[in-house]
Amino acid sequence: xxxxxxxxxxxxxxxxxxxxxxxxxxxxxxxxxxxxxxxxxxxxxxxxxxxxxxxxxxxxxxxxxxxxxxxxxxxxxxxxxxxxxxxxxxxxxxxxxxxxxxxxxxxxxxxxxxxxxxxxxxxxxxxxxxxxxxxxxxxxxxxxxxxxxxxxxxxxxxxxxxxxxxx
Length: 167
Description:
The chain is α+β, with helices and mostly antiparallel strands. The protein has a single domain, classed as 3-Layer(aba) Sandwich (Aminopeptidase), CATH 3.40.630.30. The chain is 32% helix and 31% strand. The chain contains 5 helices and 7 strands. The strands form 2 sheets. A 4-stranded antiparallel β-sheet has the order 1-2-3-4, sandwiched between helices. Helix 1 (14-28) packs across helix 2 (32-42).
């Protein structure tokens, strides 16, 4: 029987930072040092975080909630939004098995527990595969735009929030 476990990374999870940095470098050509610095920063913030899912003890998928994503550099008008679901990644040999949906569900539930009311995301829709995935998970498209050669869709999702003070 397979054991799936989710963790929210802490500032001292350097080994996992390096693993994720290598994944992001190989998948999206994001410099490893940039990823490691970002992970150090967000893991010290209550409302930003990086989740890691393991399968039988092996890390296979990750993603997080960030207040700054690359889209904001190209389209500053989206800076009014915080809490971006970003950089959801599953190792190639474990793709198309539902693990991406599982990590997104975990991230959403953790966000709800933090009291966040809404999440945003953007994705490249060249294949529309990811847009359909997020729609199945309850996300709503709010805008489609072209940035250079990329077709981007911006989506959001309202969350059920849980009162943190027992009121």
